[in-house]
Structures are given as structure tokens and as C-alpha cells.
Amino acid sequence: MITLQFISTQELAGLDEEEKIKKLLTYVKSDNIVVLDSKLKPEEEAYLIKLTMTEINSKFKGIEIATIFPEKKTLQGLQKLRFNIAKILLGREHGLTIIGPAALIKEIKKDPGRIRLLMKKTKK
Amino acid sequence: MIFKFKDFISGLFFNVFKRKKTFKLGIYGPPNSGKSTLANKICIDWLGEPLSKVSNIPHETREIKIKEKITIRHKGKSLSFNIIDTPGIATRIDFEDFLKYRLSSKEAKKRAKEATKGVIESIKWLDNVDCVVVVLDATKNPYSQVNLTIIGNLAARKIPVLVVGNKIDLKRANVKKIEAAFPQYKVVGISALKGHNMDEFYKSLFKIAK
Q1: Do A110 and B141 make contact, defined as CB atoms within 8 angstroms?
Q2: Cα B169 to chain center, whole Å?
Q3: Where are the domains of chain B?
Q4: Which string of DSSP letters, residue by residue, matches chain B?
Q5: A112 vs chain B: nearest CA distance in angstroms?
Q6: How confident is the model at residue A10 (pLDDT cuts 50, 70, 90)?
Q7: B33, B61, B75, B190 — which has fewest CB within 10 A?
Q8: Cβ–Cβ < 8 Å for B145, B181
Q9: pLDDT tens-digit readout, B31-62
């Protein structure tokens, strides 16, 4: 059974970068597909990849990850203002991050504004 | 007056050494995009010898490879650097994928283990490079998260980047898609294997290394 785990940024508030990434990876290693309501920072993504590499073994094959977020260049006027205010107030960037175990996800196809998760066929 | 003269002399020495200092050029990208083929092409063009072994099997380069003191020339100017060929960055490594390339189970597991270490090394080296060429396979979708993570991390570190769309000798290559994905960067379409458009590549390298 595939479990989708929706996580609010508030649940991760108070955790430092390492703790946050470790927590996300723990969910993924338990065969959850994590949907986070914000975009990870590039440094967090790099740390997630590093940590994933240390955990790979015959059972855990790694992760698939995709983020989707509004390009600042495409935002105009009021939209841009709202984007910047939200960033200052919430201390994070708008967006969505999806992370799942490579054993379950065959591929994540991504276009600038769309993510498609292709799942592996499970044995009945 | 004496102090001013001392400053002038030390400044002169500093500038001379600064000018002679070679920078570290990192070659980054996902597995099998042609990083080592490009590193080899540069080394063969300017040193007459290759740097890394290449193959069709992903994660052929599993350790950082360095070639020092490469000097390239363009329009009477020269540029000296050390080239750092890095293992491909990936989020998943499955030893079973290597079995398709007729490796034994033992060899595949060993390769997978080494590949995970290689990815970690590549990420660590992001803090040690001065300038980066990101090599992407122009026949593939450029919006993959690995590409975005590499370029995002380089941007966060304010490291100059040249994006290369490799394999333009193949029919499915689409350099315009890479340009659309990374509009803030200079993108050059090349074939490192066939040597297509290398003049444009070297010209662009001079511009980003300024």
C-alpha cells in the first residue's frame, strides 16, 4: 500500500536543517511519499542527496524528488508583492516538494508547472 | 613615502601572483551526460592526453579526477585552470540497473557502493571549485531535480556557471529546451564526442572565467 504523507512546514518548524532532512528521509524510508508545502533550499536538497547516498543498501535504492514553485520572473505586480510578503512572514518560499522512495516511484516527469509521478507496478 | 613604496611593491607582487593563479574548473552534471567525454576532449585538445575512462555504463566516473595546469588560448588570450571531473550526481542508485550492462552481481554491487561515495564527493567539492561547467544530455528533459539542485547550489554559492547541452550530434537533441529551462545562464550546444561546436564552448569559457 502506498501512503501519501502531507507535511506542513509548521511541523518542521524549530528543527535545524539536518534534523529536518533526517525526518523527511525517515518518512521516505518507511515507504511514504512525502508532500511538503514548501520548496527546499538548494543546500537542503544537496544535504538530502548526501544523506540518501549514505543510506543506500540492497533494500533502499534511493529517492525520487521534485519541486514545483512559481518562477519569480513570471510573477507580476500584486502577485509578486504577495510572494515577497509571504516569504518574509513565513521565512520560506512558496512551492511544493515531493519526495518518494525510488523502489516505489519509477520516474518523476516534470515540466515547469507540472509534476507527474509514475509509480512502479506492485505485485498482487 | 617608504610605506607607500612598500604598498606599491607588495601590490605589484600580489597582482602578478593573482594573475598567474590557476582556477579550479568543475565539470558537473547527472550520470551519463558526457562529463568525462568533455573533460577528455579539453585535455586532448590542450594537453594531448585524456583524463578519464569513459563508457556507456552509468557511474563510470566514481572518483574525482583532476588534471592540473591546462592552458587554453583564444584570440591571443590564455586561460589556465585545473580541471575537476566529478562523478555524476544522482538521487537513486540501484545495483540491479548495472546488471543490464552484463556486470556480475558482485561487480554491480561494488559499482553501486562506489557510486554512492562518488555522489557525496561531488557535492562536497561544490565548496572547492571556482567556476563550473554543467554538462546536460541535450536529448533528455532538462527539468530534472538533479539539474535544478546542482544549478541552485552553484547559484547559492555565487559560482560562475556555463551550461552545456551535450550530444547535439544525436537527432533528439534539443538545446532550446535547455535554454528555456535555464534562461539566466549561457547555454552552449556541443558534441564532446564528435568535437562539434567546441570553438563556441572555449569562447564561452573565457567569458564566464573572467
Answers
A1: yes
A2: 19
A3: 22-208
A4: -HHHHHHHHHHHHHHHHHHHPPEEEEEE-STTSSHHHHHHHHHHHHHSS--S---SSTT---S-EEEEEEEEEETTEEEEEEEEE-PPP-SB--HHHHHTTT--HHHHHHHHHHHHHHHHHHHHHTTT-SEEEEEEETTS-TT-HHHHHHHHHHHHTT--EEEEEE-TTSTT--HHHHHHH-TTS-EEE-BTTTTBTHHHHHHHHHHHT-
A5: 7
A6: confident
A7: B75
A8: no
A9: 999 999 999 999 999 999 888 888 888 888 88
List Cβ neighbours of A80 (8 Å cut-off, separation of 6 or more).
A72
Q: What is the mean pLDDT of residues B77-94?
A: 94
Domain boundaries, chain A: 3-119
pLDDT recorded at residue B209:
86
ipTM of the complex, rounded to two decimals:
0.85
Measured N-to-C along each axis, helices A42-55 and B145-156 cross at an angle, to the nearest 10 degrees, of: 120
The alpha carbon of residue A99 is apart from the nearest alpha carbon of chain B, in Å, by 10
- Residue A5, judged by CB atoms within 10 A of its CB (0-12, 13-18, 19+), counts as middle
Element (H, E) at A26: helix A17-29
Q: Take residue A51 and report the three cell numbers written for it.
A: 544523506
Q: For B22-208, CATH number?
A: 3.40.50.300
Q: Provide residues of A within 8 Å CB-CB of chain B.
A: 41-43, 45-46, 49-50, 52-54, 56, 58, 61-67, 73, 102, 108-112
Q: Determine the straight-line distance between the first and last CA of chain A, rounded to whole angstroms.
A: 11
> What is the number of alpha carbons within 13 Å of residue B129 lying toward its C-beta?
31
